[in-house]
Amino acid sequence: MKNVYINSVGSVSSQNTTDDADFLKEIISYNDTTIPALNPNYKDFIPPAAARRMAKGIKMSIVASKIALQKANLETVDAIITGTGMGCLHDSEKFLSAIIDNNEEYLTPTPFIQSTHNTVGGQIALEIQCKGYNFTYVHGSNSFESALLDAKMQLELDEATNILIGGVDELAAHTILLNKAIHHIKETPVESSKVLNSNTKGAIYGEGANFFVLSNKKQDSSLAIVADLQTFNTLPIQSVAEKAREFLLANNLHPSEIDALILGNNGDVEFDTFYNHLATTDFQNVQQFVYKPWIGEFNTASSFGVLLATNILKTQSAPKAFQMNNIVSSQYKTILLYNQYRGENHSFTLLRQC
């Protein structure tokens, strides 16, 4: 089977990731319970008249996807595969609020049409005139991983040459209130650098869109190879390290051969124990990174982890603010990512240097 290369990335997040010149050079620290994504200059990518009718998640995705395509020197792709946990929340809330406010009468259909989870993939396809395979995965915090796995299998079997994949989720006011009520969001603001030591329930929530052009043809600009990916619905804490070992063994690797471990710690005292177990057992002598304190937690936040890993493999350097331990690798050839959310939807992703 053919190798699967990440040939380019495009990102809109709460950090400086839109511009190559500023890409993760100065890490922005936050002190809040939610972290909104930084708005790029949307009119550079979307006609203003069209942008006014789009929710933030759609606009972020179009910008991120167009950046990824530009970097890959492509105008269109063979397929578009999107992952999203909650879809276009803003339009969903807008439509449901209108139902209540208007007594279920005189409803405008536009917010309903744009609230569906596959709106993002459809809008991107319209923008780049892609008439190929277009699929959206809504698998909670494994949504992006499902999109990645689908693309990986198609490329390995030579069913496509270039595939655009991405993960996107947005913040919305009423959903934030609901998550605060059930203690999924922290009650009080926490500084980004202190999130992991907050010792409180809940996470800092965020939003963003991260898109990648995957191909079975290597380019000079290729960033990384997607070596393997495995997901689990549930895992007991004591099995996490064992599953990681088995995953690496299937790829003829030992934990000591991993150059960096990227974890999805979000500061939730109840569920960071999964990450801590892995970090303090087989990988205690491996350099470790975290990213969610700086971008927030959302269902497709792991796509930012892949973005971080590809940047590390390509540049052979990493933002110091993201480092969790004091170990520094001499080189980065193989990176393992582990993510889960509230004890469910576990994933292991293995990336290699091109």
From TrEMBL:
- Domain of life of the organism encoding this protein: Bacteria
* Native species: Bizionia echini
For this entry, the protein name equals Beta-ketoacyl synthase, N-terminal domain
Please report the stretch or stretches of sequence annotated as the Beta-ketoacyl synthase-like N-terminal domain: 46-218
One function term, GO molecular function aspect: 3-oxoacyl-[acyl-carrier-protein] synthase activity
Question: Quick check: keyword Transferase in the entry?
Answer: yes
Q: Record keywords: Transferase included?
A: yes
Protein's GO biological process = fatty acid biosynthetic process
